[in-house]
Write a structure and sequence with these properties.
Elements lengths: L2 H17 L5 H8 L9 H27 L4 H23 L4 H25 L7 H18 L3 H22 L11 H22 L10 H23 L14 H25 L2 H27 L1 H32 L1
Helix pairs in contact: 1-2, 3-5, 4-5, 5-6, 5-7, 6-7, 7-9, 8-9, 9-10, 9-11, 10-11, 11-12
Amino acid sequence: MSPDQRNQQVHKALDQWLRDGQIGISEHARIGELYVQTRWDWRSLGRWFLTFGAISLAAGLLLFLREHLEFTLPKLAVGLALVTLGLFVGGRWLIGKPLKLLGGTLELLGGFALIGTSFVLGMIYSDGSGNWPALLLVDLLILLALSYALNNVLLLTLCSVLFFVWFGGRSGYLSGWGAYWFGMNYPLRFLGAAVALIAAGVVHLRCEAGLLRRYAGFAKVWISCGLFVGEMSLWLLSLFGSYELIDGPWHLADAGELVMFNGLWALVSLGVLALGIRLRFGMLVGYGSTFFIIQLYTLFFTQIAETLGWLMSLLIAGGSLLALVLWLESERQKRRGTAAEA
């Protein structure tokens, strides 16, 4: 293990202890200064390239088979089922070697193949109801169980995407694809789902110190999914307000409604940012700062840009963003230099 990898593991452990309340902020800072992180984590970038490369390879293989082999739907279902089984078995085999990264990626591809299998089966046994979200629910439950059975955070990430698509599709199907479902339009219903996801993530995080110790890191996926869905919902509400039926007249939100939702969005983003700084939780800091900056730029382009003209507005937006990046980089370098001197 290289010194940089060791320091990264130490910082991850310190962050977890801080969130669990086992150490204070002062102890976290004092110990963290002894283990300086000075290099870019190329392995993190490599994991993403490997994942996307494997997905691209699988997509290319499927296109090749489609062009050169003629499948009936039953044959395609059997073929996809065998591919799904092979990917999961191969993934387990590689993890045992150990090639955990490659094995986990194969299991992720197995999850995609499982989704494809369910949709082909849905086409074969379709009753004409058009209830495709039901297929996603089956996939979601199976993959959620596999995520914990196989201890694969990549599969859990896929589950978060499936939940987003299934929940929107299911609530839309029940409401006849109208904008309202139980009195809530799409942003409001996803805002409610975000609160539930974040609450589940917080409970999961607390349990990772004991009962769910084996699944350390899974809570971040739950919390990340909830934060993303919630922030995106507030973004839409800040732009359009609580709009009416999707096929009805356009909802013209008044100034008071937009100010209320913009204020709520700002409070949520700044609250997430403050909590992330307090707990040294980098993911929260990233979400809070990113969406607060998005809100500022959204307000600029919706309220000010038309008055200034697009040329001046783009110059101001681009220049301010560049200045922000330079300032953040200089602050990072200062902190790194201070830690190295200590």
